[in-house]
Amino acid sequence: MSSNRRDFIKKATIGAVGMTLTSGLTSLSAQSYSRILGANENIGCAVIGVRSRAKAHIMAIHQDLNAKILYNCDVDDTILEEHNVWCKKNIGYIPKVEKDFRKILEDKDVDAVFIATPEHWHAPMAILALQAGKHVYVEKPCSHNPHENDLLVAAQKKYGKKVQMGNQQRSAQTSMNAVKDIKAGIIGDVYKGEAYYSNNRGTIGIGNKIEVPKSLDWDLWQGPAPRTGYKDNIHPYNWHWFRNWGTGEIHNNGTHEIDICRWALGVNLPESITSFGGKYTYEDDWEFVDNQQVTYKFANDKFITWTGHSRGIMKPKRPGRGATIYGSKGAIQLDRNFYKLFDLQGNLIKEELEKSASETTNTRGIGGLDVYHVGNFFDAIRKDKSLNSDIKDASISTMLCHLGNMAQDAGATLKIDSTTGKILNNDKIMKHWKRDYEQGWEPKL
């Protein structure tokens, strides 16, 4: 990090950003940030998909005096109008507005695009941006299916621009410290990473077929996905739970914690995967499991578990999300806001808190980690610094989530080629490696 950014982090106390760890509730206002100085090189940015997560991107971009948001892009006029009001209030200006992101890619003043669209757009849009000569910050997951995962990595290699995935805990100083301590042997030989997420999402109901809202470009919203009729329970958020556009909770939130476990254990692709779970709560249009347990087995007897409770809070009470790393001499608990070290008896030995807290279970997830992660992205563009979550590595965590869904669909343990991620013992499930695309929309290098 630059010295200016370090100075900012020191000043960004929990009180300064109006956040509290004890309540688990966080809030953030533009006025609570003191903008930091960037490097001399200006970076023109476009933010695509501006309803929710994009707010965190914009607040982070806004901390750099030499980065400018040139465009807000969304396919829904109502969302754009609301976002323009938000921008005027929170960053002091309203960027240009565009509904078709392809027009933005034609603008040579745009250096970097931030993608916060529905997941079926992540890889296709990122690849088009790379082909247009743009750097890319893409929200997790970086792909809708394993084929896109491989394609995006190949595109970055071919076009040579920076691609950072938005698993922002990779830029948390406390998590960095923990991984450094783990490698130094602070908890002995590490063998297990336990990732978990707990929420109490309600029913999405049975959707009614209705006319597409006049404010929405439904065709462009669907983009690479095969066309379907419009229903009243898809847009703007519940697409997460439909296979045509979303990837389920293991991607929506599990990507973060599975990634942290993989990082801490120093592993890449697994040897085998088993998943148990189901849809247990509501009779509705939700197409994925709403409670899931996945076990990933790696070489050297290391393993990671993912426990996802989308609809039903985990008990006994624990933080709404996090990761615990187990070793022969103790354990480390991590989330976006802290690092806790325990001995084998469960006694707390050490605790570190992030100087600027982040939200953990709402749809924006806004906070200090966004500033650090975007700052790292800008440092990579300006100074060729290493990315904290470059797409080659981030795609491995995304692949684990894809394979978790595939193991659940298979109803059996999957054997994995730990070099490629390909499934070795189930030809039927391997047919889902790649999705069907709307004619003319399939991403290609």
Q: What fraction of the residues are assigned to beta strands by DSSP?
A: 15-25%
How would you sum up the global shape?
globular
How far apart the termini lie comes to 33 Å
Q: SSE order in H/E notation?
A: HEHEHEHEHEHEHEHHHEEEEEEEHHEH
The residue-averaged pLDDT reads 91
- The number of helical elements comes to 13
The neighbouring-strand order within the major sheet is 14-13-12-11-7-10-9-8-15
Radius of gyration: 21 Å
Number of strands: 15
Biggest sheet details: 9 strands, mixed
Spans of 5+ residues with little confidence (pLDDT < 50)? 1-38
Find the structural class using helix and strand composition: alpha/beta
Detailed description of the structure:
With 445 residues, this protein is of the alpha/beta class. The protein contains 13 helices and 15 strands. The strands form 2 sheets. The chain has a 9-stranded mixed beta sheet, with helices on one face. Strand 4 (112-115), helix 5 and strand 5 form a beta-alpha-beta unit. Helix 2 packs across helix 11 (368-383) and helix 5 (122-131) runs parallel beside helix 6 (146-159). The longest helix has 20 residues, at 391-410. It is globular and about 60 Å long.
Summarize this, please?
The chain is an alpha/beta fold. It is built from 13 helices and 15 strands.
Supply database-style keywords.
19% strand; alpha/beta; 15 strands; 445 residues; 6-stranded parallel sheet; 9-stranded mixed sheet; globular; 13 helices
